[in-house]
Amino acid sequence: MKTERSEKLFEEAKTLLPGGVDSPVRAFKSVGGTPLFMKEGKGSRIKDEDDNEYIDYCMSWGPMILGHADEDVLKAVTDTARYGTSFGTPHRNEVELARLVIEAVPSIEKVRFVSSGTEATMSAIRLARGYTGRDRIVKLDGCYHGHADFLLVAAGSGLATFGTPDSAGVTEGNARDTLVAPYNDLNALERLIEAEKGNIAAVILEPVPCNYGLILPKEGYLRGVRELCTRHGIVLIFDEVINGFRISMGGAQEYFGVTPDLTTLGKIIGAGLPVGAYGGRADIMAMIAPEGPVYQAGTLSGNPLAMAAGIAALHKLKSINAYSLLDKKADYMNSLLSEAKDKYKGEFHIENLGSIYAFYFTDLEKIESVDQVRACNMEKFAEFHSRMLQKGIYLSPSGYEVAFLSTQHSEEDIFKTVDAVKKSLTEMFGR
Ligand SMILES: *Cc1c(COP(=O)(O)O)cnc(C)c1O
User: Fold this and answer.
1) How far apart are the first and last CA of the chain?
2) Helix (H, G, I), strand (E, B), or coil: what is residue 264?
3) Which structural domains are found in the chain, ordered by start?
4) Ligand 1 within 6 A of 399 CB?
5) Ligand 1 center to residue 146 CA distance, Å?
6) How does residue 161 score in pLDDT terms, banded at 50, 70 and 90?
7) How many beta carbons lie within 10 A of that of residue 416, not counting itself?
8) Does the structure show a pLDDT above 90 at 340?
9) Exposure b/e, 21-58, CB count within 10 A at least 16 = b
């Protein structure tokens, strides 16, 4: 594999951008090697600056559910751009995308568009605090919600439930009002909420965590969280930035039949353009300026191009019946993977929900907690990643990240991918 041009660009990038990148995981630090500079993509395929082609499973970390350079999305964006790229005034595309989102996502009665997932979660938390008049929030260990200060908080040690800063530059003050409980442990959450009775504005979680491997909720867990929040007057926020329009058209809340008060969205609703959104109960959303006292604004919020891309994507997801299509592709992938899963039991494990996959090097046969993900062998994943890359399969460059199928991954793509998985594992385990 020739990577001269990517290497040269990366050397130059490092003199101009911190670490040579605009987002840390892109730098390949956890898998080693040089990050590849992509120059084009079509459907399931991407091509780097040295003209190597890959079947892509990073898919821009989730947004490209329809594959790269989807014709309908491209047409919507270019048609819109011809008339101007931003006005800072209301635009009809905001109204249309809002209607599509509200129709699709069960709990959303009103929605506000922003420019990233981070902005969506940050704003939803401010809204929950404004609505309840309470300061503290609960996040669950293993869920990622973007990089707002009060969400870059890790679980404290031992029995402490108060968070500790998870990044330099996050103050103790930022972390003080964020309490952390483990995901999938309803009793721990209940204890924490009981101990902080009347102080908690919101519980925020990824209904299906996808940023720390893939962890599926235990039977009844999400319903239990919902009941706890209702009982204590806590705003329940589902961060569906990845789950939304991925697990089903109505997201995890539709799939599991559990209704949050607020939902955050991003990724797929922008089809690869920068977008985020938060929405929910009309009475809570009425607290946002200019209707209410909770301030939140954005120069490029509801940007016409981003809205156009989202509109085209959501229409298409519906018209091609994307989720049953993706389920069929996943069934095919799973049927091919089952042999490897059996053969390497005790060393290698795959978790999957619909079009989301995670590859783990572990002796466990089921992953249900962050501690189990933490115990996985990430050095083995790094080796797996580079062996897959050499075989033309682009996985996200970290063992904590998931892989995504798109509607454009063909049977041939999937066959090739599983073949590469088997060959990589044989090389690694010598059998
Ligand atoms: C990606 C992601 C975010 C952050 O979104 P950005 O657009 O990267 O700011 C927040 N929450 C979840 C669940 C995500 O997957």
Assistant:
1) 25
2) strand
3) 4-69+321-429 (3.90.1150.10), 71-319 (3.40.640.10)
4) no
5) 5
6) low
7) 15
8) yes
9) beeebbbbebbebbbbbbeebebbbbbbbbebebbbbb
